[in-house]
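ugh ok fine here u go
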Amino acid sequence: MDWLRQLAANAPAKDRLGTARLIDQRARERARDAIALALPVSLGRPVMATLGRDGRPDFSIETYSAPLPGTPLAFGFDRVESEAHGLANTHVDAANHVLVDGTGYAGWAADDPAAPSVADLAGAGLFARGVHVDLPALLGVDWVPIDEPVTGADLDRAVGATFEPGDALLVEVGRDRFVAAGGDLLDLERGLGGLGPSAARWIADRGVSIVCWDFADSRKPSDPPLPVHSLIWALGLVIVDNCTFAGLAGAARHTGALVVAPPATAGGTGALVNPILVL
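structure:
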């Protein structure tokens, strides 16, 4: 926790963008130059109505139609309720998602209505070079095991020296293969491994602007809880949870332009999104 507090102490006071600030003009130009095929690949999972923490579905949609009087026309409408977090649906975490001692990123009070939210990310425009790595393919396993979480050294070997501050890191740990084999994402003994503490330090040290991953942090009992998600509080790290990389099968590494476009929801701690990697 001391390391996180040191990072937090260096954050610009009352900053609103967190690591989205790292996406400067040069970073956007790298994203543009990374497009070779003009091929968009969706990283978003189909939205599911699984049960949330309060026992209610974390997504629900009601569709209905209404006629236009005096004409043969009718229009369809939707009423949607969604929970922006959890392990099911693809979503972006905003800077107000994680609090420590009642305080959010960059010193914002938890109850401050002016605190940064997902609306700030929407206004910033999240467009960065995305570097995707399939770690199980590089490590020679089907998925990362829970007792051997991803390390900074793993990321070094996978990403290489071309990664620059402001780039986005897209990390695949084998979630879909794990679930297809009957694995339980909540199993704390034989479960799926995520990114551990040294991987969190790598993310901070290398100036990662956005982390997109198919799973989450390490759940190894001896590791600190949520080492990467804690960087939301310390750095304002932009995280896109529960991505799918099925559309990137065939190679262990891809580079392209990542686009994440959340709705401009004032006060929101996150939002369902469909990130696109343009190859």
